Amino acid sequence: MKRLRLTAYVLKKITPEQFDTLKMWLKSIMKPRLDTESKIKVEEILEKSSQGEVDIMVSNLSKSIDNIFDLKSLDEVNEYLK
């Protein structure tokens, strides 16, 4: 939780241009590594976010990433059990 607050604090302090650049960077880094459903979810979060709503964006991205890793872990367990 502390990291999320620190991330949100820093993102509120950068310029709007830097914030837009960060969103583009996040898309280019994350999307190639995600399945279709996750790509859509991350794209929606980043597109809807504005610098004034950084807390919401950080929280939503964090939840989405946690869900993605949980699902991948579950898939790995299921694959192992086959």
Plain-language structure description:
It is a single chain. The chain has about 80 residues and is an all-alpha fold. Helix content is about 85%, strand content about 0%. It contains 4 helices and no strands. The protein starts with a helix and ends with a helix.
What's the arrangement of secondary structure elements?
Blueprint: H1 2-13, H2 16-30, H3 36-48, H4 54-81
Work out the helix count. 4
Beta-strand level of the residues, as a percent range?
Answer: under 5%
Weakly predicted, low-confidence segments? none
How widely separated are the two ends? Answer: 36 Å
Rough outline? globular
The largest sheet, given as strand count, sense and whether it forms a barrel, is: none
| H-E string | HHHH
Helix content: over 70%
Radius of gyration, taken over Cα atoms and rounded to an integer in Å: 15 Å
Structural class: mainly alpha
The overall pLDDT, averaged over residues, is 80
The tally of beta strands, per DSSP, is 0
Structural descriptors:
4 helices; mainly alpha; 82 residues
Task: Offer a quick outline of the entry.
With 82 residues, the chain is mostly helical.
